[in-house]
Amino acid sequence: MAHIGKDIEKAIRLLNDGEVIGIPTETVYGLAGNALNNDTVARIFEVKNRPSFDPLIIHTNSIKRFQNYISEIDERVYTLAEKFMPGPLTLLLPRKDIIPDLVTSGLENVAIRIPNHPLTLELLSQLEFPLAAPSANPFGYISPTNAIHVNNQLGDKIKYILDGGDCQVGIESTIVGFVDNEAIIYRKGGLSIEAIETIVGKVNVIEHSSSNPLAPGMLKSHYAPKKPLILLNKNQVIEPEKKKIAYLGFKQYNPFIPVENQLLLSPNGDFREAARHLFAYMRYLDAMDVDIIYTELLPEKELGRAINDRIRRATVKE
Ligand code: TXA
Ligand code: MG
Question: Fewer CB within 10 A of the terminal residue: the chain, N end or C end?
Fold first, then answer.
């Protein structure tokens, strides 16, 4: 198992040596290494068991440092960055040659973000390179929102996990790209589309497909627990069956399921709280002695859209 601690010096030493470690961010934990070192980046793919056609996000600590890694940023994009970074926003921007092909899977744009977590910002400020970091889960499983989640799944493959407590946003960053000056949301996430639209106007949202060659990382089935997760429609009656059932609800218990088998994302109906709980609760129910997990969608607005995206994808098996 990996060591877990808050020792930034140790994290720096390991990263400078080309090692891969777990790091906290406000969204989910990352599996981080030197983004400019090919061997390290290859190791990230290996540890995560991730196909190499699925590119990685690079993380740095200031907009000023972007200029080392990207070739241009227009004024509107800059305004967006100034407004929401550090924060749960990832921008797709034209990369400089210093970024290895392996990081972007050969694409011309690199995904870049500034995580809003004090420990990781401090870490990044002391490194001379950006960190490539996918979510620190095995490919296809639920993203980790605390150090224990990382240790349970990847602890035997990495030496150290920097412990920054529970992730305060709880779902991954929102990914925004630009085509012909138009902003496009490639992944809904911890920054709401409504918030982005206050800066750049109306945006286009790409919905996921199971085989979109342009966005290979956006496979439909993702974030999935091992047990079947099934969506219920509003007021749908569940027939008594022999199966043991669990329920993941938004703010109200389901009358047909034993209450001790249920978790509510936010009894007050708060989207932020729901996002913060989502992945940990999926994991909890996945580990319970049940055969099947039922769930429901949230209202389709603000962070509800990003949460619903995770829930829908977790229900797909393909
Ligand atoms: O919140 C987050 O973004 C977390 C934390 C650790 O920062 N990271 C994260 O990374 O979610 P990952 O690798 O699990 O998801 C990144 C997504 C993938 O779907 C990938 O395909 C897409 O970003 N992506 C990365 N680079 C890209 C690029 N150059 N062009 C298009 N999509 C890209
Ligand atoms: Mg991921």
Answer: C
